Amino acid sequence: MDDALAERVLAPAFLGAWSRAVIEEFRRPNHCSSCHGFGERLQLIGLGGNRARAEVVSCEQCIGQGVVPWSKKRRARQLSIGEHPYRNFLNPHHEGALALLRELEHRGAVLLLRHLGTDGST
User: Is residue 121 part of a domain?
Assistant: First the structure.
């Protein structure tokens, strides 16, 4: 990373903007167009003749997550930096921050279900 970009990225104003961008993507995810955000799809399997059965399978487009990441171009534009520097230096950190938010959301849901006295299986 060149010195000018490093100086800009480490500035408190940029870190605040980047934090807001990560939270915005978490709050407004890009739902998968193939499974409509469910992470699973119904697949018909032909059994021969006029017979078929339906099977629920993990969505291949979003790898069963229900969301696809915002484009690198969109993320870079939101931070007012070029796509190339974003892709090379900031994207791994952005992905990690999103993963952490999703993990914390999951842990919170598990604790809430435990507190309410249900394990979520009903």
Answer: no
